[in-house]
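Chain A, query sequence.
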Amino acid sequence: MPLPGTAVNASDALPRHRPRSLAQGLVEALGDRIRDGRLAQGAKLPTEAAIMEEFGVSRTVVREAISRLQAAGAVATRHGIGTFVVGLGEGGAFHIAQDRLTTLHDVISVLELRIGLETEGAALASQRRTPQNLSAMRQALEAFNAAVALGRDAVGADFQFHLEVARATQNRHFSDLLGTLGANIIPRARLAADHARESEARAYLQRVNAEHESIVDAIAAGDTEAARAAMRTHLANSRERRRRAAATGG
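Chain A, predicted structure.
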């Protein structure tokens, strides 16, 4: 049974390892839902039984995962009522809120930060990625393409892809920092209602995912310089697309 208001997808599956690994996998899965808005701030988490059923884990694993999320300040438990989402990036941690991304300068500043962080992250990922990491990246690509085909916002899948690259570094500081920044760092490009604008937006998103595919190909090949260059090109292109859109009023 899926969590209320969420859709089950392959990227939510948990690795079948020892309980500690299962707990961390559950932390990441629930954390992803908090970051991309499927579990909004103030929302009540499903019961332990519902989480156990969806993810196929024991009560011990669920309680350990919830404990870790509590320690991170992501959720808070009200005894006798339930556990509620507080949010990620709170409690004094570095955080970029949506209201701090209202101008072109704001968006470009974040993209410059991401170029510095994610370019080197892609290089490390090319050296350290596992088959599971590559599978998770490709699942994010498929989710992105599916969202575009259905005319839906692909921001969640876009952010998931970049998060999976960060995880492939095997250095949790990369994924923790990117996770703290959250899906707000992905420039929005929704499909417009007008047919001409819809076609233009769809072509834009297809170009974005073609750049994602180039990143995955370089990481899969273990080509450090190509991975670094592909990520830098992708984020630099995103920066230039934002500039052109602002100049034309798009």
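The radius of gyration is 18 Å. The mean pLDDT is 81.
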